[in-house]
Amino acid sequence: MRKYIFNGAVLSAALGIWTTVRRTKDGARDWKVVLLWISSAISLAIAIGTVIEESRRLDDGDA
Questions:
Q1: What pLDDT is attached to residue 34?
Q2: 25, HSE (Cβ side, Cα atoms, 13 Å)
Q3: How many CB atoms lie within 10 A of CB 48?
């Protein structure tokens, strides 16, 4: 769990989601909000996928 919490990419994506939540709460609701949420979700998924891939590579000894 620690490898996810302290990873810079995951932290950045989580802050991006926080920004998305604030913007959705305070802003206008139109098609741009949907794209904003999709973008934030994809960024978080890529960051988590990268941590998983790095972890597997280090476990296999291919560092």
A1: 92
A2: 6
A3: 15
Mean pLDDT, rounded, of the chain: 87
Question: Smallest Cα–Cα separation from 49: which of 15, 16, 9?
Answer: 9
CB 39 within 8 A of CB 4: no
pLDDT at 63: 55
Q: And the tokens for 28?
A: 């206008």
Task: Please name the residues in contact with 2: beta carbons below 8 A apart, sequence gap of 6 or more.
Answer: none
Looking at residue 63, the DSSP 8-state letter turns out to be: -
Task: Examine the pLDDT at 5 and tell me if it is beyond 80.
Answer: no
Alpha-carbon gap, residue 18 to 50, rounded angstroms:
20
**Does the pLDDT of residue 46 top 80, yes or no?**
yes
